[in-house]
Write a structure and sequence with these properties.
Blueprint lengths: L27 E12 L2 H9 L7 H14 L1 H4 L10 E9 L4 E12 L4 H19 L7 E11 L6 E3 L5 E3 L1
Antiparallel strand pairs: 1-3, 1-4, 2-3, 4-5, 5-6
Helix pairs in contact: 2-4
Length: about 170
Amino acid sequence: MSEQDQKLTHLDEAGAANMVDVSQKESTHRIAVARGSVIMRAETLDLIRSGNAKKGDVIGTARIAGILAAKKTHELIPLCHPLMLSKVKVDIEPDDTLPGLVVTATTKVSGQTGVEMEALTACSLTCLTIYDMAKAVDRGMVIGDIRLVEKAGGKSGHWTLERDGSEGGT
């Protein structure tokens, strides 16, 4: 990695925070995928699966919260650009081995800047909504492992997080 590649892009020459100027960047199709989990008691997972949680449909509500969060990322993270997202998909899958729920958020755009922060924000808020909706029965839930697992498009190309946690790219 060159010294230029190691520069923090949201700092100007004087070290002040600034929004990156993307006006000269090429518009490309971009995608980002983030993944996280909510670990809970097996009884809590069973309650969520049954659809009998006191606050209602945990998975459906959390999915909508994640989609909304992706759309509002620029309002939550100060230096993010507002984007016209072309797709936001939030998958929530039960995993008995945790036990808990695995959240995968995918965001897409055709534009001059990436959608990693939108995917990460969608994943985070989905997990937080799951916690909020089930906390009455399980305050010990653990939200974790939220990270980018794939991104494609733009100058840096395609990048994936390998199963062993190492980075891979093209």
